[in-house]
């Protein structure tokens, strides 16, 4: 068997197993320096759009070059995992939590599956040197997902896919195994600006650029200090994350409910009204969000967000 067909065979094996494990799509890119992303990242950081997320300025070279994360890296295997819920619990008459945080923390759910995928590769193809990542290292995953053909980067800076919109997680394997690459696909946003127009805090100053320091997700999760008064009356009841730019995106009409039991919302989450949120006790917080990403804010942080969102 020649070298090219071996690369194709191995790529097909990995994609089939990824599908069996529940991943929505799998694409492969060649591990290389992301030269085209370097200027964008440098400018974004220089303009302070990372806010207090100082870690974004760390490991600049590693963000752009996977071979600095995994010695001898040959391939970046990009995977998507659907989290679109069957029922949207962010109704108009209550405070809202981003859909990705309804169920169990995705970091743990997906990392378990990634480790299973690595075990499969080693049992079927042979020993590989590599690492698995789920938001856990300086990897420009949207850029890599674009390179691997999983979608294009929308004007809201999130990855978009023609068959499933944008409500999916990204994860990756960086490995020293040479695999057949997938070609990137074109941008299908066209002249649409719904995400830009809908953002209540003007956090999308231009196509594909999000000013993190103005984003509701940043304000309610990453920001540890008080939320600046300039955002008073603009939160639209979001208290953990925000889905506004995704909810208005026409491509998300193709979103289909996920099949991952771990991502189902806690039974109490859909029944909490505004009064319940405002009177939330730490015990209820721990019960409802015991396994959720919402734990990141801690109880005090969530109550800060609720009290700020009340202001109109």
From TrEMBL:
Its main location: cytoplasm. It is found in: Cytoplasm. Its cofactor is [4Fe-4S] cluster; cob(II)alamin. Binds 2 [4Fe-4S] clusters per monomer. One of its GO terms (cellular component) is cytoplasm. The active site is at 135 (proton donor). SUPFAM superfamilies: alpha-helical ferredoxin. InterPro entries: 4Fe4S_Fe-S-bd, 4Fe4S_Fe_S_CS, QueG, QueG_DUF1730. It is an enzyme of class 1 (oxidoreductase). Cob(II)alamin binds at residues 63, 135, 159, 170, 217, 242-243. It catalyses: epoxyqueuosine(34) in tRNA + AH2 = queuosine(34) in tRNA + A + H2O. Gene3D superfamilies: 3.30.70.20. TRNA binds at residue 224. PROSITE patterns: 4FE4S_FER_1, 4FE4S_FER_2. Pathway: tRNA modification; tRNA-queuosine biosynthesis. It comes from the Bacteria. GO terms for biological process: tRNA queuosine(34) biosynthetic process. One of its GO terms (molecular function) is epoxyqueuosine reductase activity. [4Fe-4S] cluster 2 binds at residues 199, 215, 242, 245. Keywords: 4Fe-4S, Cobalamin, Cobalt, Cytoplasm, Iron, Iron-sulfur, Metal-binding, Oxidoreductase, Queuosine biosynthesis, tRNA processing. HAMAP family: QueG. Monomer. Catalyzes the conversion of epoxyqueuosine (oQ) to queuosine (Q), which is a hypermodified base found in the wobble positions of tRNA(Asp), tRNA(Asn), tRNA(His) and tRNA(Tyr). Belongs to the QueG family. This is Epoxyqueuosine reductase. The lineage of its organism: Bacteria, Pseudomonadati, Bacteroidota, Cytophagia, Cytophagales.
